[in-house]
Amino acid sequence: MKINPYKSNARYVAITGMMLALAVVLTTLESQFSAFLPAGVRIGLSNIVIMTALLSINAPTALIITILKSVFVLLTRGVTAGMMSVCGGLAAFLVTWLLFRHTSSSYVMVSVISAVAHIIGQLCMASVLTGSVYTFYYAPLLLIVGIASGVCTGIVLDIILKRLSGLHEKNSERIDHIK
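RE: above sequence
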């Protein structure tokens, strides 16, 4: 189901706002899980929202949500976390957008590659911030967790998009029945 942002400004703003709020809530929720994971490891729940926005609305909206989510991280966890979030988020967004636009890869595959891009973006920023390439020694652990979480978020994305499509079909049937 594709949401036309030009059909109704109020609907578009409301849906975009709800998606941003959901991304922020998921970012906050995954912070609670981080106590059980190695330092710096996150599971990327908010990427589900970004990919859903990219597929159901458009790329500019998904990019705005990505950036605003990073601003939330900046405000709640500080400059370093904000910079890591924006670098990882933009790398993941760019890869996701390119893959959805130019390939017919599965949601799981795109999600895994997006998670890897996110990790690479964050490691590059960590290397700049620390002035050391030794941050890349953390890559194997991050890649293992990133691939696993990418598989999970890809599966969840597939389920969500099927549900959205089903809701759209049910609403279309109701509207057709009323006419």
